[in-house]
Design a protein that fits this description.
- By secondary structure, this protein is mostly beta strands.
- It has one helix spanning about 75, and strands spanning about 15-20, 35-40, 50-55, 60-65, 80-85, 110, 110-115, 125, 130-135, 155-165, 165-175, 185-190.
- The strands form four sheets. It has a five-stranded mixed sheet with strand order 1-2-12-4-10, with no helix packed on it.
Length: about 190
């Protein structure tokens, strides 16, 4: 398990479908969970991102991430699946996008369409694409989940422990060809 440094100086309650740069606002919440949503349906060459509450130096928090998404357009799934077993739709659909089959969660590619260049990978493949920043977006890291993994978990729910560094916690998933992505990751940040 990789620990991050930081704490909750001011906890801001927010529910945001963030596509980058959104700053949380709302009432202070002394230990109450804060939920943000990271929508994968972003413009071409954009990075799916979300910003959570301010984490003051030294305050531990638990981050729960749930949901599924696709980095391939719906039409790519029409060719069938070369690896794994896809699911028919994201757990949390993107607004303004036709949502279809999915094969990715916060930790794993669990299915890949036959027309993908990723068909040669062994599945499930640990993606490491979900990243967290505690230093104001200078560095983004893929943390190790609290429970060691051997493959995708039922319900696609993963939890991480972080320690703040005096900045809002930030999340991202970078994809060089993101215009056809869809699905949302729901992220709950709970101070310990």
């Amino acid at each position: 398990m990789r620990a991050f440094e930081g704490s909750v100086g001011m906890l801001l309650a927010v529910v945001a479908a963030a596509c980058g740069g959104d700053t949380p606002s709302g009432p202070q919440g002394g230990g109450a969970p804060v939920i943000v949503e990271m929508d994968m349906h972003v413009g071409e060459d954009a990075v799916a991102s979300a910003t959570g509450p301010m984490l003051a130096v030294g305050q531990a928090a638990r981050v729960k991430v749930e949901g599924t998404y696709s980095i391939w357009g719906q039409s790519m799934w029409n060719s069938g699946v070369c690896q794994g077993t896809s699911e028919p739709a994201p757990a949390f659909p993107s607004a303004g996008s036709g949502n279809g089959s999915v094969g990715v969660d916060a930790e794993y590619y669990f299915a890949v369409p036959s027309s993908s260049a990723l068909c040669s990978k062994a599945y499930p493949w640990g993606a490491g694409e979900f990243k967290i920043s505690l230093d104001g977006g200078v560095d983004f890291d893929n943390p190790d989940p609290i429970v060691p993994l051997t493959g995708p978990v039922a319900g696609h729910v993963y939890e991480y422990e972080v320690v703040g560094q005096g900045h809002p916690i930030m999340f991202e998933r970078d994809d060089t060809d993101s215009g056809d992505n869809y699905g949302v990751l729901r992220i709950t940040v709970t101070p310990n």
